[in-house]
Design goal:
Elements (H helix, E strand, L loop, with lengths): L1 H16 L4 E2 L18 E7 L1 H12 L6 H8 L1 E10 L3 H13 L2 E9 L2 E10 L2 E11 L2 E11 L1 H13 L2 H6 L1
Antiparallel strand pairs: 1-2, 2-3, 3-7, 4-5, 5-6, 6-7
Helix pairs in contact: 2-3
């Protein structure tokens, strides 16, 4: 009986952590197209399990009282996918932008800082933003952060203001 319980627990743990897989395969639809020539591009994908990430992020943010606004936004996130692409090219980035436009993503903001470009695009249903795609390109490297949830335009505006106020760009890169 004890042996069956241990095996069941191990299978359950394996199933739960399967969602936190780092792979060399793309996790964004555009990059799944087998007919597209990606050249020498190398992909790294991370699916972030929210049931594990939310408590950790909330706990670290609670250390500063001014982060309550950000914690409220974290509660609205249902899924996060991160993908890095090494050896991308301008044509691939351009084709990806066209793909997002065809998928009804609206460009919200583009920030150019030195050699990097950060682009925020959102997919809305009525007044509710269901998906937020953040792309960061620098030379031949591209990072995509695909966030699903139920946000408002005010939520995204507060997030952008928070990041500018606290200069998150420097904290993340240094």
């Amino acid at each position: 009986m004890k042996k069956h319980l241990i095996i069941t627990i191990l299978i359950l743990i394996t199933f739960i952590f399967q969602s936190c897989i780092i792979s060399q395969k793309p996790n964004v639809s555009f990059f799944d197209d087998p007919s597209y020539n990606y050249g020498t591009a190398r992909f790294t994908s991370i699916n972030v399990p929210m049931f594990l990430a939310k408590p950790i992020v909330k706990k670290s943010l609670r250390s500063e009282a001014e982060n309550e606004e950000l914690i409220k936004l974290i509660k609205k996130v249902s899924e996060v996918k991160v993908m890095t692409i090494e050896n991308s090219n301008a044509e691939m980035v351009s084709d990806f932008a066209k793909y997002l436009k065809n998928e009804q993503y609206e460009e919200w903001m583009t920030v150019k800082k030195e050699t990097e470009t950060v682009n925020f695009q959102a997919k809305q249903k009525g007044d509710e933003i269901r998906k937020l795609m953040i792309s960061i390109s620098s030379g031949s490297e591209l990072v995509l952060v695909n966030i699903s949830g139920k946000f408002t335009a005010d939520d995204i505006s507060r997030l952008i203001n928070y990041s500018e106020k606290n200069d998150l760009y420097k904290k993340v890169l240094h």
